[in-house]
Amino acid sequence: MESAVFEEKDFFACCGSVQFAKEMASAAPFSFPDQALKAARDIWLNKVDVNGWLEAFAAHPQIGESPSSNHKSPTSAKWSKGEQSAAIATATDSTLQELADWNRQYRDKFGFIFLICASGKSTPEILSEVKRRYTNRPIVEFEIAAMEQLKITELRLAKLFPANKQESPPKTNLQVVRDAVEKVTDRVSIIGSHIASVSSKTPTRTRPPITTHVLDIARGSPAAGIEVRLEMWDGNRPRLSFGEPDNGGWIFQGSSITDKDGRSGQLMKMVEILKAGMYRISFNTGKYSPDGFFPYVCLVFEVRDTQKWEHFHVPLLLSPFSFTTYRGS
User: Fold this and answer.
1) Mean pLDDT of 101-115
2) What is the C-alpha separation between 84 and 118, in angstroms, rounded?
3) I need a surface site. Which of 101, 171, 217, 329 has the fewest CB within 10 A?
4) Does residue 60 have an active-site annotation?
5) Residue 193: pLDDT above 50?
6) Tens-place pLDDT, residues 7-38
7) pLDDT tens figures, 263-279
């Protein structure tokens, strides 16, 4: 079966991220849409970084507005107009104004435009959704927006293929058997790796066991130039509890400055087994944002004895008057 030939600009029209378009062009050619969709999902979720996500978000017009006449991709602008046709057809002057107000509030809170796969959705439906999602925590909403972008990308990728290639050819009996064998092999491999890791407990690390990055959600970009400091509580002292003075009990592990991607450098030695105990990671947010509410931010967490082989990624989502964190991977 002859594969469809696409260029990087075609994939850019589908997503709006240069990084995504380059990765897709490298993975091409694709004979059928499902091959492209599988590659797109993997690239978007596992290879495109925060900058790429934000670039893709920014390529969209706000819901209820027309694309810019100087849009980087005329094809993308044309598709955006079609995807919002149901919303425009069901809008009134008052609902359009209300939507514009909510778009502004949403962007002020999260740092990027409200993104939704608008195909077939009416203006009242979209208004209801932006109001519901406005109450989300920033990290939750960031992930939801990324998945909405993926939906849009998948719809647009399918448009690249002619109608006679919208479905993959039926599998032969041999292909069905091979697929079944591959699934069983994959499961055995995964189970085997889990058993091996549990039994040996000696994985080879490719990064320090504690890492972090900072995202400036007010600016909608990674926060570069923030000093980060990692410390560990002295294990020879009684366990520190809330409200108790530390009396110099924190032991310095390392420090670094976040780079252009908001990621810190190495904060501690590359060790296979992380020492169990309490850790404190501090961010010099006052120097980064002198007019902000937080002169610095400290996060304290505890590594249990059963978690010594795990990786702890502690990101910080920062705005002038709030911050959010969670345990990543």
Assistant:
1) 92
2) 6
3) 329
4) yes
5) no
6) 899 999 999 999 999 999 999 888 888 888 99
7) 888 899 888 889 999 99
pLDDT, residue 171, reads 47
- Cα 153 to Cα 34, 57, 113: the distances in Å are 13, 11, 17
Instruction: Tell me if 106 sits within 8 A of 140, measured CB to CB.
Output: no
In this prediction, residue 208 carries a pLDDT of 87
CA dist 240 and 48 (Å) reads 40
Per-residue model confidence as pLDDT tens digits over 245-256: 888 899 999 999
Neighbour-count burial of 1, counting CB atoms closer than 10 A to its CB (0-12 exposed, 13-18 middle, 19+ buried): exposed
Contact 231, 250 (CB under 8 A): yes
Do the Cβ atoms of 322 and 292 come closer than 8 Å? no
Largest Cα span, the chain? 73
* CA 44 – CA 11 distance, rounded (Å): 12
Q: Which of 60, 71, 213, 313 is catalytic?
A: 60
Task: Indicate if the pLDDT at residue 240 is higher than 90.
Answer: no
User: Phi, psi at residue 47, to the nearest 5°?
Assistant: -120, -30
Q: Is the dihedral of CA 51, 57, 58, 59 positive or negative?
A: positive
Q: Tokens 């069901």 label which residue? A: 90
- Rounded distance, CA 328 to CA 32, Å? 34
Phi, psi of 196 (to 5 degrees): -65, -40
**279-307 pLDDT tens trace:** 999 999 999 988 888 899 999 999 998 88
pTM to 2 decimals? 0.50
Residue 252 and residue 215 in contact, taking contact as beta carbons nearer than 8 Å: no
Measure the CA–CA gap between 139 and 156, rounded to whole angstroms: 26
pLDDT score at 1:
47
